[in-house]
Amino acid sequence: MPSLVPLLPPGYRSRPATAGDIPAIHALVMDCERQAYGRVQRDAGAVAADLSRPGLAPESDTVLVHDPAGRLVARAWVDRRSEVDVHPEHRGRGLGASLLTWTLARARQAGTARVVQSVPDSDTDAAALLRAHGYEPLVTAWLLEFAMPAEPSVPEAPPGITVRPFGAGDGPAAHTLVQDAFDEWQERRQGYEEWAVHTVERPTFAPRQSALAFAGDDLVGAALALDVPGTDEGYLEQVAVRRDHRGRGIARLLLRHTFRAFHRTGLRCCTLWTHSDTGALDLYHRVGMTVRHSSTVMSKDLGV
User: Fold this and answer.
1) In the prediction, which pLDDT does 304 show?
2) Which of 19, 169, 254, 260 is deepest in the core (most CB within 10 A)?
């Protein structure tokens, strides 16, 4: 099947991404995040994880766009989910529309039934572009923050519950716990390798700041954290509690353990993303977290 090529404005050229492009892609993503959020959120490991998604073929499912001087100024990938980034200095020239059209064409070519893409609520132009292409809101996502001017207190554990940091060999049990917990809202379970590259095998994974809760020898809760270079805050990638142990304060306990662990490294803020399908926003508010900004996950059915 021939690879699709986006129609670009004069002077721009495109090619697929390779693993060697990860530093340049990360630099582009950082510039886009600074413009959208005022700070960097993702590390190079997140870019690498996207390129290694099971089923994603970089030669046909990714596009990099370079300007006439050879600088990387935009990129896109699609594999059920899609992402398009255009450098702030090159917006308004039709690159975003060209890449969005390419993601839809590639998804249809691959037989994908539905494609989704997130857009910051502050980026009204991007939201309007997606709507113009037939996208509709699917869920709302929030980035929450917890300020830590003083060391956070940690509540007493519920009876029978113990907490310790993530250790060697904990990956498989943590994977099962998270997938079981997320089955309630996620479209599909992730295999261990796909999950691990986004979490426990990511270069920025912070095992000493990640907290696990046990009932006897059984893992019943996990807060998996990242320490992202270039930021001054800790980040929680995933928080999960086994269904039969919910309502006991375990999530709050794990969060507070992680907050305190990051505070002791010198950080004064922690963040995490959640979205409306999880039903967890009220929990995070009760813990003392506040919304920093929001995004909308947009969806388009392709009818294939």
Assistant:
1) 61
2) 254
Write out pLDDT tens, residues 204-249: 999 999 999 999 999 999 999 999 887 889 999 999 999 999 999 9
111 backbone φψ class: left, alpha, beta (φ>0; ψ -120 to 50): left
In whole angstroms, how large is the CA radius of gyration of the chain?
20
Helix, strand, coil share of the chain (percent; to 5): 35, 30, 35
Nearest-angstrom CA–CA distance, 113 and 225: 33
Angstrom distance (rounded) from CA 79 to CA 272: 24
Q: Which ranges of 86-206 would DSSP assign to H, the alpha helix?
A: 95-109, 124-132, 171-182, 192-198
- Model pTM score: 0.88
236 closest CA partner among 211, 216, 253, 218: 211
Place of tokens 């413009």: 35
Structure-token pair, residue 107: 């998804």
Alpha-carbon distance of 291 to 141, in angstroms, equals 10
pLDDT-based confidence at residue 145 (cuts at 50, 70, 90): very high
Question: Contact, 130 vs 119, CB < 8 A?
Answer: yes
* Helix 124-132 / helix 95-109 crossing angle, nearest 10 deg: 40
